[in-house]
């Protein structure tokens, strides 16, 4: 008898498990299908996400190239200038493709002029280099701020859609009538926030990397100006 009860209990448990599995399968939804529930408002959000990814990758590679520095570069520049080999110093600068070498090259071409003029020329080149490094960052910042706003626009559109269905249904309101508008509202909001948050963190990370490059540029400028201020032997 006990064995029969155990078999019956096991059968009931298996049946309940099967029912739960069927229920889970019914509520499972594909991610792509879920995103489609956001409607046309998802198109600009997808475009903004692609723009943000492109700018981040492109700027990351550009900043990585700009941050590379030959440790012996300034020592060789010092040796060439002390030896009076200006052409060799210029050739060394031209062989390196980074902001620091271009700034030092401009300073070397101004040797013989007042130090203030040399410093100003170097700063002008530095400002141009920083502008090149920051290219695209305003767009990334716009994506960070604009994507959530577009998502919230989708929220408003979805709620309007739901209320419209409610108004037309009269007293025969069903949950299925409101589901489409609610899906639009929630999916667009979440997508907009995700795109905005990722773009925001990417923007600040790139800004921090640029500041590190600028610090190196300023340090090498001071080092070069100190070299020109050294008394002649």
Q: What would the average pLDDT be, to the nearest integer?
A: 78
Instruction: Give the percentage of residues in beta strands.
Output: under 5%
CA-based shape: rod-shaped
Q: How would you classify the helix and strand content by structural class? A: mainly alpha
Sequence of secondary-structure elements: HHHHHHHHH
Question: Please, what is the oligomeric state?
Answer: single chain
Total number of β-strand segments? 0
Question: Kindly, what is the distance between the CA atoms of the first and last residues, rounded to a whole number of angstroms?
Answer: 111 Å
Number of domains: 1
Main sheet attributes: strand count, strand direction, barrel closure? none
Key terms:
233 residues; rod-shaped; membrane; 0% strand; 9 helices; transmembrane; transport; single chain; mainly alpha
Compact summary:
One of its GO terms (cellular component) is plasma membrane. By secondary structure, the protein is an all-alpha fold.
